[in-house]
Specification:
Blueprint (H helix, E strand, L loop, with lengths): L7 H16 L4 H8 L3 H51 L5 H14 L4 E6 L7 E6 L15 H8 L3 E3 L5 H6 L1 H10 L3 E9 L2 E10 L7 H18 L1
Antiparallel strand pairs: 1-2, 1-5, 3-4, 4-5
Length: about 230
């Protein structure tokens, strides 16, 4: 029976297949039998083509990462366009806009919930809520010790990686007190700024310690700008 000859591409493919199976914890003897390659042949191939296989694996990983980034960007652009569409069709009613922003923010940020609060005097009542976490106080006072209050007072985005951390408890005592009922750990608060005046805030919460990426923070700031457009 003539010896089967493999092309370099077929060899690299089999090397990648063997590496995946070995990495999954399967016994080497089982892997070689499944792929149809003797151990000595695998070792010879790895010596000759192992570098190329690693390079191709890295390229595939890069390609997958680029595809994820493109899909993420497309999803974010679609959400932004949908909110603008809601704004254009709700010129006299801001509630559909707030609801759309809260839902889109929760979905794209993989958050447990999103709150949108409006400034009314010294308090900030909820105007939209999307998610499963409880809203412990409907209209809390605007205070520096609360994450949303700090964002409103200082006119800037506030990102708390872990509210349970000692430094966060000291800096945000009101937030620490409230989170005990809901259990959230990571918070992001983006103020709604109109003509240098804070008129509200978008608050995003996660139960686990999982800080938000710079991309998501930028997206939330875009949503905040869109909310201000709706109010105007």
């Amino acid at each position: 029976m003539p010896k089967k000859v493999f092309t370099p591409a077929q060899i690299v493919n089999k090397l990648c297949q063997i590496e995946r199976l070995l990495a999954s914890g399967k016994a080497a003897s089982v892997v070689y039998k499944r792929v149809g390659v003797a151990e000595q042949v695998y070792r010879r191939w790895r010596k000759q083509y192992g570098g190329l296989a690693k390079r191709l694996k890295a390229l595939a990983s890069d390609r997958n990462a680029r595809n994820r980034d493109l899909n993420e960007a497309l999803e974010q652009q679609t959400a932004t366009a949908e909110i603008l569409k809601v704004i254009s069709s709700s010129l006299t009613d801001t509630q559909p806009v707030f609801d759309a922003v809260a839902e889109s923010a929760a979905r794209l940020c993989a958050a447990n919930d999103v709150l949108i609060r409006r400034v009314e005097g010294d308090v900030m009542p909820v105007v939209a809520h999307y998610g499963d976490l409880p809203v412990t106080i409907a209209a809390p006072a605007i205070a520096r010790g609360a994450v949303g209050g700090r964002a409103i007072i200082e006119h800037r985005t506030i990102h708390v990686h872990d509210l349970v951390a000692a430094a966060a408890q000291e800096e945000f005592p009101e937030a620490w007190s409230l989170r005990r009922d809901a259990g959230y750990r990571t918070m992001l608060a983006v103020p709604l700024i109109r003509k240098d005046t804070a008129i509200g805030v978008i608050i995003v919460r996660r139960l686990e310690v999982r800080p938000f990426s710079d991309k998501l923070i930028k997206l939330l700031e875009t949503f905040a700008d869109q909310s201000v457009i709706a109010i105007e």
